[in-house]
Amino acid sequence: MVNIEINGKSLSVPEGSTILSAAQDAGIPIPHLCFLKDINEIAACRICVVEIEGTQRLIPACNTQVEEGMVIKTNSPRVRAARRTNLRLILSEHNSTCTTCIRSGNCALQTLSHDLNIHYQPYKLQPERSRVDLDAPVVREASKCIKCMRCVQVCDKIQSMHIWDVAGTGSRTTVDVSFNRLLKNTDCTFCGQCVTHCPTGALTVRDDSNKVLRALADPEITTVVQVAPAVRAAWAESFDLSPKFATTGRMVAALRRMGFDYIFDTSFTADLTIMEEGSEFLERFTHRGKYRWPMFTSCCPGWVRFVKSQYPDYTDCLSTAKSPQQMFGAVAKSYFAEKKDIDPHKLFVVSVMPCSAKKAECELPTMKDACGDPDVDVVLTTREMVRLLRSDCIVPTDLPEEPFDSPLGTGTGAAVVFGTTGGVMDAALRSAYYLATSKNPKPDAFSAVRGDNPWKEATFNIPGAGQVHVAVVSSLASTRLLMEALESGSANYDFVEVMACPGGCAGGGGQPIHEGEEWAAERGALLWELDAKSKIRFSHENPEVKTLYSEYLKAPLGKRSHQLLHTDHAAWSVPSQQEES
């Protein structure tokens, strides 16, 4: 332990601690802007400077370790003046059009300006010229970038993709796509983790809400919206609703007030995914010699882009099952359209997802199987849905609870946990066990794959099939470690679930942003709780899925289900590390 003094308060702190962490643990606030613990501690913004007795220069608290006998002042007149000057210099290069910025009211720079009592700007404003590219789901506005390096560090350390980098020199120094490329021409997975960790509006997810508003206003278009499992765990955060009011029923009622004709639960096709993916796994597992191993889940588009660009030799190991989002679009524009006698070309399918990569997934050329049009027309993130509700002056607490529509609105507990790491594996094993034995396992028999550990592994016995070695991994840096272990032969699995975002969809790039906080674990815990309370906890017991098979698909892995619910991942490519001229 090291003995120090902060603002006259004597403290004993662990050796190796930074001044900032020591102060935070002691309840002493130090303003900061670029800092993210264990991710970005490079003192890029110089807002967290403090004064140390006996030291002439002010030093950043975020990356300076404590030393025995340090006497630290965190709020002296000299420190306050330096922070304001540094912040004004940052603001002089920032496009401060806050009223039209998507992060207004939820911007670390805006909050800090208020906290440091910045009321005027003595420096000339010279924001960087922006080159906005709306062809990719992730959008960068250079004029709002404050060069904090968070995106660089998150992409490098958490996702291992190295998409962002420092560019230019001197006064032209900025952060941009590495190797001077356009984002759409990189192997970016569009996971959106850079967006959720950006303190300003420099990085955002492309807003597609106007497309939805146009469809809602067209009397000749039938609008259908599906809502992903992870959205129900996060949508009410922006309204500060208590768990009592943050119900799925109120979310459905709010969407109905917006004008959607039909509101469905993506949990329905999450159950359908389990039926197809579980059947596919058993087919492969009982005919091991015909396939390469392991089999990977394919419901996360960020992961699919990752494996196709980083480890393309493993593409044939992906399950051929589409994601629940794309299965829903295909079923809506075929089975549902026939059932309701609707022209599928006039059916507009909207997805509300916790994910930014879903926007790229719905635009793939291989996702047009139902009627020739895209199976899913538009993807909105959770944040976009909230903005639309606010723009319509909808107050969720004033609404009565309403159910999802039928016949695509019923989901099981197994489907709900798709939204958190380990959920897909847990759900798949529940139904795989049944498909192999004709008996249900205990619903919590596979709980070893749950939890926040970014790389989990377990072995389960499925009678009649054998010992199944499984792994669950979330975040692309952890995924890369797993892939390297597979390539070196130090790991060997039969079935692997991969989620690109830490914590799974609950921590997706389209979820509500809480500055400096990670909420994936809390949201995931809520989803497991909803599963435990569900009346039906097995995908194969979903009555509407049974009806779909009996009336339309006939059987898992059948001819029609292959046409609508499966895809050839090798039929499209991801840009490699090519440079642009």
Question: How is this structure best described in words?
Answer:
The protein is of the alpha/beta class and 581 residues long. It is 33% helix and 13% strand. The strands form 5 sheets. It has a 5-stranded mixed beta sheet, sandwiched between helices. Helix 8 packs across helix 10. 49% of the residues are buried.
Could you give a short description of this structure?
The protein is of the alpha/beta class.
**Principal-axis shape:** globular
Strand order of the largest sheet: 2-1-5-3-4
**Helical fraction:** 25-40%
Distance between the termini: 54 Å
Number of helix segments? 18
> Mind describing the biggest β-sheet?
5 strands, mixed
* Average of per-residue pLDDT values: 95
Strand-pairing-aware structural class: alpha/beta
* Proportion of residues in β-strands: 5-15%
Spatial extent as radius of gyration: 25 Å
| Quantity of strands, as a count | 17
**Poorly predicted regions:** none
Walk me through the topology.
Layout: E1 2-6, E2 9-13, H1 19-25, E3 49-52, E4 59-60, E5 71-73, H2 77-91, H3 108-115, E6 138-140, H4 150-158, E7 164-167, E8 174-177, H5 193-197, E9 203-205, H6 209-217, E10 222-227, H7 248-258, E11 262-265, H8 267-285, E12 295-296, H9 301-310, H10 324-340, E13 347-353, H11 357-361, E14 378-381, H12 382-391, H13 413-416, H14 423-437, E15 455-462, E16 466-474, H15 476-488, E17 495-499, H16 520-533, H17 543-553, H18 559-565
Parallel strand pairs: 1-5, 10-11, 10-13, 12-17, 13-14, 16-17
Antiparallel strand pairs: 1-2, 3-4, 3-5, 6-9, 7-8, 15-16
